[in-house]
Amino acid sequence: MRRAAFNLALAAAVLGLAAAGLLLGETQLTGAQIAQAFADPASGPGEVLWSIRAPRTVAALVVGAALGLAGAVMQGLLRNPLADPGVLGVSGGAGLGAALAISLGLAATPGAIEGAALAAALAVGMLLTVLSARFREPETLILFGVALSAFTGAVTSLVFNFSPSPVTLAEVFSWLLGSVANRDWGDIGRQLIPVGLGVALCAYAARGLVMLSLGEETAALSGLPMARLRAAAVAGASLLTGASVAMAGIVGFVGLAAPHLVRAGAGADPGRVLVPSALAGAGLLVAADLAARIIPTDLELKLGVVTALFGAPLFALIAWRAARSWRG
After folding, report:
1. What are the extents of the domains in the chain?
2. 64-322 is a CATH 1.10.3470.10 domain
3. Rounded to 5 degrees, what are φ and ψ at 40?
4. 93 CB contacts (<8 Å, ≥6 apart)?
5. Which pTM was predicted?
6. What is the pLDDT along the chain (328 residues), one digit of tens a residue?
7. Which of 9, 164, 179, 234 stands 20 to 30 A from 129 (CA)?
């Protein structure tokens, strides 16, 4: 009952932030204009509300929820509170795919950048899925992930070095910083299938995460198909991360911080942290996007910059509180 109330409170907070995402922005809408937008979606205020702000807010909700869920799955799978969607190199792989697409001049083709990012993320995810079935130790998977992340980061740097023009270089850099601005319903719809599949795989893997929290030997004796559940967890987190990067670029700290924010209310059970983490991630990213919109700057701040500016101190506070509890 307590967990249900906690989830409902999180959902209410997310809905409140989503409403603020619709009503707030660079263009201030009066009460009469908001009423006009609901009465006549084809009007000027309606275009602002339903063609610009609504898809942007929904994109932030989807990306944030996907990253929060992926982070919770990674922390449960690897039994490491510092794990996040980027720890296994999936974010770096998706960023590399997008950077290559932009440098090859495919930016003008609708969906090309997003498709390249998702394809690269899936390639990394498939490799990690094979490795997770082969190696049981979480430390081994982390080391492979670090190596993949370093490799994709190095190749992305090569893309910067060999960029054909300063304009292309600026496009790659801007995309990698992350943003949900100028997203439309088509951009969101193209990523719903991989997001939905990722959610299904993570839900299937939840019982394996519970067993892993009791120790490797207990998990092995549980009778569950642990190799299959590990592979599902890695594949699900990879799909969620790849779809998120495809939609919004690389956004840090959300997948890392969201599970920590809800663990006190949701409990230590990795299976029960998944839904609250997704809700917290959605709320965090909508709040970050709102901050990017309303902070007065000549150029709108990139979403990845905002999440880093606010996420790093927030995570430091979480770590400080955790350290105090450990000492106590």
Report:
1. 64-322
2. yes
3. -135, 90
4. 120, 121, 123, 124, 148, 152, 242
5. 0.89
6. 677 888 899 999 999 999 998 888 777 878 888 888 888 888 888 888 888 899 999 999 999 999 999 999 988 888 777 778 777 788 888 889 988 888 888 877 777 888 888 888 888 888 877 877 777 677 777 788 888 888 988 988 888 787 777 777 788 888 788 888 888 898 898 889 999 999 999 999 888 887 776 666 666 656 677 778 888 888 899 889 989 988 988 888 888 888 988 887 777 778 889 999 999 999 999 999 998 888 887 778 888 888 888 777 776 776 676 666 555 5
7. 179
